[in-house]
Design goal:
Heat Shock Protein 90; transferase; single chain; alpha+beta; kinase activity; Helix Hairpins; transmembrane
Length: 427
């Protein structure tokens, strides 16, 4: 089950990484392309603007003054450029190329159809003899000569080669990135499944322990009931021990089912805390009075230390349940002649509640586990019987009231459980 989930999560995580890598690679490529061709486009546009804004006859005169000599290009025209890498081609009204006698223009001999401008005032790309060019063309009116098409063209081979290298590097990088994405996806999927596996194992253990705990009282009730059926003529007085056992196990079973239901509803967050203001010191006095007779009957004593009024915003019923759970545990693990202390005090920001006893204590290695469900130390099992659910419910109540727990215990000397609740509680 977890293996299939692991594979699905791996695929999902890998796809996310691959998409992110692809988007990042695309952004880098198109940004680089834009930056490379930005200067090319600006140079071509600047050259065209230069020709449009300056009459060609003035260009001819200024050039003849600077460089006297015969000019043989069919029209007697030669153009000056700001970017020496830009060539200028002139087309007459019949789309014939007027060539200059230079080494660069020889490349276009026989390739007039390829380089002839298809659109005006629009940047275009063309490939001639494995060379890449970008050009821009416009119409220019020359007095005395007519209308010509001026085409400024620039070799972009270096830009193309750089982009191709970048594309190759990115392809290799994306390949490595995909492998890393799969590995990362597998790792992250495994990490994300850890709490799920722990929760599953915890649930399985909970079901197993609950089944075991439920089986025990049911088996006792079933056995005692079978004994009663074997003696149908016996009176209750004759079978008082069996009837008492059935009654005890029934109450134990009822309490266990109620606790399991509480924990199940708490896990699904179905129980809401009805918080309201009440006097915590008065609640402690009430609970202590109810326990005095029971504690006295067991040969133990209980002491209350609540000298001041403590107003608490909380679910009174759940706080009552919490205190009863802690007192029950203290009584259960305190021997005859022992003492139990219930203390309450308030500070500027907190309310502190302590339950202390001088009972059998808890081993140091067992203290972090006492709030786990169905957990009981070996020593505790020899001293008293229990289901191991009370402190789990107590932990849930404490967490719902944003409290903190501190446990101090020494074997043979006793245990102290301290609860710290903040004053500010949301109603």
């Amino acid at each position: 089950m977890f293996r299939q989930t692991h594979i699905r999560l791996t695929v999902l995580n890998s796809l996310v990484f691959i998409i992110l890598i692809s988007i990042l690679g695309g952004i880098i490529y198109f940004y680089t392309q834009n930056q490379l061709y930005k200067d090319v486009n600006l140079s071509l546009l600047d050259a065209v603007n230069h020709f449009e804004n300056q009459p060609l006859q003035q260009q001819q005169k200024s050039e003849q003054q600077q460089k006297p000599g015969p000019i043989n290009n069919g029209t007697g025209l030669r153009f000056m450029h700001r970017d020496p890498r830009i060539l200028t081609l002139v087309w007459d009204s019949k789309n014939n190329l007027l060539r200059e006698q230079n080494r660069e223009s020889e490349l276009f001999n026989g390739n007039e159809k390829l380089i002839r401008p298809q659109k005006l005032d629009t940047l275009q790309d063309v490939v001639v003899n494995d060379f890449s060019f970008r050009y821009l063309a416009t119409h220019v009116d020359i007095p005395g000569y007519g209308q010509f098409t001026v085409q400024v063209i620039r070799n972009v081979n270096s830009e193309k080669e750089l982009l191709n290298r970048l594309l190759l590097i990115m392809a290799i990088g994306c390949g490595i990135g995909v492998l890393c994405a799969i590995a990362s996806g597998y790792f992250l999927a495994g990490r994300s499944l850890v709490p799920i596996k722990k929760a599953w194992q915890k649930q399985q253990q909970f079901v197993s322990d609950a089944s075991h705990e439920l089986r025990t009282p049911l088996a006792v009730i079933q056995a005692k009931t079978d004994l009663l059926f074997r003696a149908p003529s016996a009176t209750i007085k004759d079978k008082i021990h069996d009837v008492s056992t059935i009654s005890t196990e029934s109450r134990r079973l009822s309490k266990l089912v109620a606790n399991l239901l509480t924990l199940a509803r708490s896990d699904s967050d179905q129980i809401e805390m009805k918080k309201q203001a009440f006097r915590l010191d008065e609640l402690l006095k009430e609970i202590t009075q109810h326990y005095e007779e029971i504690v006295s009957y067991q040969g133990k004593s209980i002491h209350l230390d609540a000298p001041e009024s403590v107003k608490f915003m909380a679910d009174k019923e759940r706080i009552h349940q919490l205190i009863v759970i802690l007192l029950d545990n203290a009584m259960k693990y305190t021997k005859e002649g022992g003492e139990i202390w219930l203390c309450c005090q308030k500070t500027s920001s907190s309310i502190i509640l302590r339950v202390k006893d001088n009972g059998i204590g808890i081993a140091e290695q067992d203290i972090p586990k006492i709030f786990d469900r169905f957990y009981q130390s070996d020593r505790a099992r020899t001293e008293a019987e229990g289901m191991g659910l009370g402190l789990s419910i107590a932990k849930w109540i404490i967490e719902k009231h944003h409290g903190k727990t501190k446990v101090e215990s020494t074997l043979g000397k006793g245990t102290m459980i301290e609860l710290i609740f903040p004053h500010a509680q949301k109603s």
